[in-house]
Amino acid sequence: MLAELGCTFVIAGHSERRKAFGEDDASTASKAASIAANAMVPVICVGETGYGDLTMAADHVEAQAARILAAVPDTAPVVIAYTPVWAAGAADAANHDHVQTILRRLAPLRQARRGAIRFMYGGACRPGTFTALAGGEGHLDGVFTARSGLDVTQLACIAAELTDG
Question: Residues near 72 by Cβ (< 8 Å), separated by ≥ 6?
Answer without folding.
Answer: 29, 32, 33, 36, 42, 78, 115
